[in-house]
Amino acid sequence: MKKVVAIMLALVLVLALAACGGKDDGKKTVGVLIYKFDDAFMTTYRNALKEILEEKGYEVTFQDGNNDQAKQNEQINNYITQGVDALIINPVMTSAADQIVSTVKNAGIPTVLINREPTAEQMSAYDKLVYVGCDAAQSGTFQGELILDTPNQGDINGDGKISYIMIQGDPENIDAQLRTEYSVKALTDAGKTVEQLDLQRGDWDREKGQTICANDLAQYGDQIEVVFCNNDDMAIGALQSIQAAGRKVNEDIYLVGVDALEAALNEVANGNMTGTVLNDAVGQATAAVEQMEKLLDGATYKAGEQSVYVPYVKVTPDNVKDFQ
Ligand code: BGC
Predict the structure, then answer these.
(1) Cβ(147)–Cβ(108) under 8 Å?
(2) What own/partner pairs with CB < 8 Å and gap ≥ 24 does 64-69 have?
(3) What is the pLDDT of residue 291?
(4) pLDDT digit string (tens) for 275-295?
């Protein structure tokens, strides 16, 4: 009889351990890979992920890809060797998605991709993989609409055309491509004539945004009516140059970004930015964890249904308080 009880106890223990994924402390492990820690928006996103995952009892670790895809590939392999239960990956380069997808597929690890969207075809290779992000075109459209909502609809000097400079993120990233395209498309769709004075890549970086804007202000001066920035960090940099040049946002120049970083929200409230677009880091982190849990519960995804989008929201002086 004693023997039977002992065997049963051992069995219960084994089952309990198995239910915990074999980890002694019962916590499931999650590896999160960020393209680079030194990115203002991804820092907010990373903090949100950490809080949500820890709150839910996961053991989570983060890796800084330092904007180096080869380094991130190694980090993914290390996580696989360690046997993490799930991965959340912010790829360094979307062009590397094929390799990332095949690596996690071979390892059979449930994976959520975030922030840099690969093509549906690239994702279709693995059914335990999902992308969580936003519809980048929407943020561009909203930026254009912010300009159309100004009293002179972006044509400050009344010459019948909207003259702008475009400070672009890393053009390898679809967010940069679509924001650049759709911000201007919103203007032309509304029947406006536009003039692009300059387009340069600022790689999502505040200092580059500042330098590009300073050079353009020196070269084009009052001709510039609108400064489009693919993100807020570059817009904050641009604002420093606008102020240094003695220009005044919303009076003789318009400035828009994307993300709704805290610093940008303050500038929208102060009238130093025309507007921004909420890139909902907390909403995306929440959705990413939700999707990860579905995958851990055994969900699989059909090709063409592997992208989950969180909506963008326009932020103006009228509603900025709701986001601060
Ligand atoms: C954000 C940028 C960020 C980039 C990183 C974009 O969605 O708007 O601020 O630098 O993602 O991939």
Answers:
(1) no
(2) 64/34, 64/36, 64/37, 65/33, 65/34, 65/35, 65/36, 65/90, 65/92, 66/36, 67/35, 67/36, 67/92, 68/92, 69/93, 69/96
(3) 98
(4) 999 999 999 999 999 999 999
Model confidence, pTM: 0.91
**What pLDDT, on a 0 to 100 scale, did the predictor assign at position 17?**
47
Residue 236 confidence (pLDDT):
98
pLDDT at residue number 19: 47
Give residue 289 CA to ligand 1 midpoint distance, Å.
19
- Cβ atoms of residues 239 and 227 within 8 Å: no
Single-letter amino acid, residue 262: E
Atom number of ligand 1 nearest to Cα 232? 9
The residue written with tokens 């790829």 in the block is 91
39 lines ligand 1 (CB under 6 A): yes
Structural domains of the chain in order of their starting residue, each with its CATH number: 28-134+280-310 (3.40.50.2300), 136-278 (3.40.50.2300)
| Count of Cβ atoms closer than 10 Å to residue 81 Cβ | 9
Number of H helices, E strands in the chain: 11, 12
φ/ψ (deg, to 5) at 300: -130, 160
| C-beta separation of 111 from 86 below 8 A | yes
Q: Is the Cα dihedral 134, 42, 177, 223 positive or negative?
A: positive
Ligand 1 mutation target, pool 204, 206, 229, 315, most atoms within 8 A of CB: 204
Residues of the chain with pLDDT under 70: 1-24
| pLDDT value, residue 10 | 52
CA–chain centroid gap for 153, Å, is: 28
Determine the pLDDT at residue 26. 85
